[in-house]
Write a structure and sequence with these properties.
This is Flagellar hook-associated protein 1. The chain is built from 16 helices and 21 strands. It is α+β, with helices and mostly antiparallel strands and about 675 residues long.
């Protein structure tokens, strides 16, 4: 009897296990189009046999496990490539929006508006007294101001939108990590209860895929079912707990945010991914109004005049005092903000006086200086004094103008002087002799001016002009970085600021149609910030067309100023690194830069998409549901099930014969 019933057990397990396999197959087919689903497989194994009445009795089969067909190595490849794709897509979307704003090479772009502005001045040079042409000049100037302000507003809005996307991305990271921690609990409970958590695994893996699009993650799975997620070396998920990221201002008064670990207050590096791409597209800079890093031109210069009052300078001090106004006048006419400091030195003493932007007080102080005799003080003390005082304003362009007839020893601490000045970003110009001073000045981009010059008025004007030119060079020189919009803003605002200040300088150097000195053509809306996109307005004086300056004198028919302004488009007033460019060439360089970044990003997106698709195809070839394969399994398990039922029927007939017919033979 035991042998018969054991056969029945064998057949029943065959029915049960093949039915389970059919259920798994049906589950696969039902989830054919479910995103993130991993196909499952019923792994059948031989059931343990038993030793009964001197015989080993086979007991059929058992379902060893319901296994997911998945490869963690392929998951890692996919997530790495998806992470890079998210990064490049974010950069490409940012630069594409910027290209749309600039509108180049469309006919309504900034280049077209600039051309019309220059052409209007060209027409005014032909007819300097024509009110009709003057009205055209004002109209073109208004169009330029409107376009520049509009571009500035659109770029600021684009940065704001990207910043909001970063905030949403951080919130999405928190939502995903919270769900992963919750799934960790469910998976661990299922494993502990010897239940199948495969569908939970799918949900969790899909969440990790989504997370890898946003940030670069490190994933660690534990045998007990838990998964840990690390970003930048910090745990966002640790078993059943998760840590939130918070969007925190990246600088005082900034509205730009960075991701920070909530409990620790530590900024994290997203590595790659969409959030990092968004941060670079926006610019990893301070978003405060007037931020130099975010494109506001730095037109502020701190100027220290170090005057040698030793007897060696006695023959030249009066020349300096009589022409010091020329230097300050050049700074002012070039539209620079400046702070002034006076350092006097001789043997054994050094004095330091701060005047800020009080021009009159500074000039009067210079004019009241007197030679005090003795030998000149060691230059190192002057350098230490100037470097130690620090700038008036953070980030200001710093200049040291030395006035001394003494030679500078080149055998002493020359390298230390240069190192200190370079470290503090102080450019040195010397009104003196070449003896020794040339080594210092050239090492940090300064100049030496002849202290014995006959025309000190021209000399001081030249020193002031060179200071202004260096400020312009610093503004126009934009260091390469991964930041996109903030860097382009720097270049655009550099061009706008330098061009408008130069137009103002020329306009103020001439005369109106009424014979009055000209005023500024362009003014700032917010006086606390320099001329830049979004902060420009036409001077109210231009409501009177007679106030537009065309002449360098008050003589009728003079067109010198109008001609100079018209020629600015071709003048090399944009100095960047070791080259000087015209306005048009500099702007074309900006457009070329934007185009190159856009083209590079597009190519990376396309190539990265190919890699992602290849990784996903490779992954799906293993984990994806194949309808052909599942239909084959259906047939296989169906026949196995049917066969097992036939065995049951046969054994049932055998047992029925034994039970009901035994003992009745011969009746």
């Amino acid at each position: 009897m035991s042998t018969g019933f054991s056969g029945l057990t064998t057949a029943v397990t065959g029915m049960h296990n093949n039915q389970k396999a059919l259920e798994v197959t049906g589950h696969n087919i039902s989830n054919l189009n479910t995103k993130g689903y991993t196909r499952q497989q019923a792994i059948l194994a031989t059931a343990n046999s038993r030793y009964i009445v001197n015989n080993w009795v086979e007991l059929g089969s058992k379902v060893q496990e319901i296994r997911q067909i998945r490869n963690s190595f392929l998951d890692g490849i996919y997530r790495r490539e998806a992470n890079a794709l998210g990064y490049w897509e974010a950069r490409y979307n940012g630069i594409s929006e910027l290209e749309s704003i600039l509108g180049e090479p469309m006919t309504d772009g900034l280049q077209s508006i600039l051309n019309e502005f220059w052409n209007a001045w060209q027409e005014l040079a032909k007819s300097p007294e024509s009110l009709t042409v003057r009205a055209l000049v004002r109209q073109r100037a208004e169009a330029l101001v409107y376009h520049l302000n509009h571009i500035g507003y659109q770029i600021d809005k684009l940065q704001e939108d990207i910043n909001n996307e970063i905030i949403k991305g951080i919130e999405k990271v928190n939502s995903i990590t919270k769900q992963i921690a919750e799934l960790n609990v469910l998976i661990a409970k299922a494993i502990a209860a010897n239940n199948n958590p495969n569908d939970y695994y799918d949900q969790r893996n899909l969440l990790v895929d989504q997370l890898s699009d946003l940030i670069k993650v490190e994933v660690y799975e534990h045998p007990d079912g838990y998964m840990d997620i690390l970003v930048g070396g910090y745990y966002l998920v640790s078993k059943t707990s998760h840590t939130n990221l918070v969007a925190v201002q990246n600088a005082p008064l900034s509205h730009f945010v960075v991701p920070v670990i909530e409990d620790l207050g530590v900024e994290i590096d997203p590595g790659m991914g969409r959030i990092k791409g968004l941060m670079e597209a926006r610019g990893m800079v301070s978003g405060a109004k007037g931020s130099y890093d975010n494109g506001t031109p730095n037109t502020t210069c701190d100027v220290t005049f170090a005057v040698d009052l030793s007897s060696a300078s006695s023959g030249y001090l009066a020349d300096l005092q009589n022409s010091i106004e020329k230097y300050v006048s050049e700074l002012k006419s070039n539209g620079l903000e400046y702070n002034l400091r006076l350092v006097t030195f001789n043997a054994g003493t050094v004095s330091n006086f701060d005047f800020g932007n009080d021009t009159d007080a500074f000039i009067n102080a210079v004019k009241s200086l007197n030679i005090s005799g003795g030998g000149a003080l060691d230059f190192g003390t002057v350098v230490s004094n100037v470097a130690g005082t620090g700038p008036f304003a953070e980030g200001a362009n710093r200049y040291l103008v030395v006035f001394s007839a003494e030679a500078l020893s080149t055998t002493g601490n020359l390298d230390d002087y240069i190192s200190t000045l370079t470290k503090n970003n102080i450019q040195v110009s010397v009104i003196g002799t070449d003896a020794g001073w040339n080594s210092v000045a050239k090492a940090i981009g300064g100049s030496v001016y002849d202290i014995t010059a006959d025309d000190y008025s021209s000399l001081m004007s030249k020193v002031g002009t060179d200071t202004a030119a260096d400020v312009n060079k610093r503004i126009a020189t934009v260091e390469e970085s991964l930041n996109i919009i903030s860097n382009v803003k720097k270049m655009l605002n550099a061009m706008v600021n330098i061009v408008l200040r130069e137009v103002n300088r020329l306009h103020m150097s001439g005369y109106t149609l009424d014979g009055k000195p000209g005023g500024a053509l362009f003014e700032t809306i917010d006086p606390s910030r320099p001329l830049e996109m979004g902060n420009i307005k036409l001077s109210d004086s231009l409501l009177d067309l007679n106030s537009i300056v065309a002449s360098s004198t008050d003589a009728n028919g003079d067109n010198v100023i109008a001609m100079k302004i018209a020629k600015l488009r071709n003048e090399s007033i944009m100095a960047s690194y070791n080259q000087t460019l015209s306005v048009d060439s500099y702007y074309q360089q900006i457009i070329l830069t934007v185009g190159n970044i856009g083209n590079e990003s597009r190519q990376y997106v396309e190539s990265q998409q190919v890699l992602v698709n290849a990784a996903e195809n490779e992954r799906q070839s293993l984990m994806g549901v194949s309808l052909d394969e599942e239909m084959g399994n259906l047939i296989k398990y169906k026949y196995a099930y049917n066969s097992a039922t036939k065995i049951v029927n046969v054994i049932n007939e055998m047992l029925e014969t034994i039970i009901y017919r035994t003992g009745i033979v011969g009746r």
